[in-house]
Design brief:
By secondary structure, this protein is of the alpha+beta class. The chain is built from five helices and two strands, in the order ααββααα. The two termini are 35 Å apart.
Length: 101
């Protein structure tokens, strides 16, 4: 199973910085390319640009929590939560136990 991870294209885990404006303030975010791709997918699905999505997420998390300690980590977790919602449901496996022989 580790080949699934080990054989990933290195460009996916190379990080890239992007400057954007959040609440009128220019800031820089550094994320791995794969996370930028996922954010772009989410934004497209919601009819927004990636920058608009990030600004909207920032405003929502600030409104909900009042602070964001590590916004880049918040975005990574948001991406993984998005991906987990996209996965088809896996039916529960029933466990059969044999009782004494």
């Amino acid at each position: 199973m580790s080949e699934l991870y080990v054989k990933a294209d290195p460009i996916l885990y190379e990080s890239r910085s992007r400057s954007l404006r959040i609440c009128g303030v220019v800031t820089t975010l550094r994320l791995e390319n794969q996370f930028w791709d996922i954010l772009s997918e989410i934004a497209g699905h919601d009819g927004m640009t990636t920058n608009q999505l990030i600004s909207s997420l920032y405003e929502e998390v600030m409104g909900h929590n009042g602070e964001v300690i590590n916004f880049a980590s918040f975005l990574r977790v948001s991406c993984t939560r998005y991906l987990s919602q996209k996965r088809p449901a896996v039916p529960e496996l029933s466990v059969v136990r044999s009782v004494g022989k």
